[in-house]
Amino acid sequence: MNYTVNEKGFYGDFGGAYIPEMLHHNVNELKEQYLKIIESKEFQKEYKSLLKDYVGRPTPLYLAKNLSKKYNSTIYLKREDLNHTGAHKINNTVGQILLAQKMGKNRIIAETGAGQHGVATATVCALMGLECIVYMGEIDIQRQAPNVARMKMLGAEVRPATSGSKTLKDATNEAIRDWIANPVDTYYLIGSVVGPHPYPDMVARFQSIISEEMKIQLEEKTGKNYPDKIIACVGGGSNAAGAFYHYLDNPKVELIAVEADGLGVATGESAATTQLGSEGIIHGSKTLLMQNSEGQITEPYSISAGLDYPGVGPLHAHLFKSGRGTFIGVTDAEALNAAYELTKIEGIIPALESAHALAALDKLALSPNDCVVVNLSGRGDKDMETYIDRMPTN
Ligand SMILES: *Cc1c(COP(=O)(O)O)cnc(C)c1O
Fold this sequence. Notes:
By secondary structure, this protein is α/β, with parallel strands linked by helices. The protein has two domains: 12-50 and 89-203, 3-Layer(aba) Sandwich (Rossmann fold); 56-86 and 208-389, Rossmann fold. The chain is 42% helix and 18% strand. The chain has helices spanning 24-38, 41-55, 65-71, 89-102, 116-128, 138-143, 145-153, 168-181, 199-207, 209-222, 238-244, 273-276, 314-322, 332-346, 352-359, 384-389; strands spanning 10-11, 14-15, 61-63, 74-79, 107-112, 131-137, 157-161, 186-188, 229-233, 254-262, 278-282, 285-289, 325-331, 371-376. The strands form four sheets. A six-stranded mixed β-sheet has the order 3-4-14-9-10-13, sandwiched between helices. Strands 7-6-5-8 form a four-stranded parallel β-sheet, sandwiched between helices. Helix 9 packs across helix 11 (238-244). The protein binds pyridoxal-5'-phosphate (PLP). The site of pyridoxal-5'-phosphate (PLP) has 18 residues, from helix 11 and helix 15.
């Protein structure tokens, strides 16, 4: 079995580049250049140097003793929450900003839902002195005021998307329109393993630093460079893709992807794409997505803004359909419990997204011999308002 993308940009039945004629030039330019540039020695040297000194990598692989005791197995946390800006997203934006520079692009556009990718993009644009325009749904701008403030302080222009439901997919449409209108100087910086080929492959490569480090750290700590299970939450799927990447072809490692059941899959208020979704095209890629019988995208829901996405990257659709990945759903309430529990017993406040991955521990039959890595994709600072509102009273 092979889980890397083929020449046409497909993972099994999923992926490709379903884009309007007017985008062919931009996407082809990227497709022709990305591997040549990112595999070059010069690029790798700059990228790894920024990951080390700017992002703060390698992130620790932490043996969570209290959590291990609770589940009677060995549980490690890959601490992506300790990265600069508080999550894994910066691994990708640092990579793409270097690529944009090498391609001679000096104007960066992005879309953002919760604002996390917008902040990670505005951060690297400030670092490189590049113009940054972030499209964001008008409703999301109201809901995510602290991230809007961060982007502005970092020098980005936040442009409201005022059409449709005024959320992420409308912001995406605006960003694509902008890219079509500005094909020469503009680079479109996508935040997850979604979008037309080559984005899913490129973003997975940038996030693969997570499992690259994991191999070395596990070897050091356990004498074996792989765990029995890796658990990661899936919005678009980039932190999971990075945590799985170097183990995709190792059948000894169970790959567990956790999606947001929201209020429950039967309630109509969830983002459980593999359970509720069907094949279709979103954001230029053929994949699984939540849609009605007319092919209209269903508005997703999750308590965690980063998992509130109606699709899933094509790699994950392939892992699901081929059976290589195990997909588990976790509700808002289960994720909240897991977040309070980790905080109480390990002194680590996780992001709500990452709390979904932690909650999956309850749903696995773990044995004392199991070595498990949970990818802690981000820290909980951004979620404090929710955590305080929902704090258990006893
Ligand atoms: C954005 C985000 C996610 C979801 O995005 P993926 O592309 O699925 O990784 C998960 N965790 C955190 C902390 C995030 O900020």
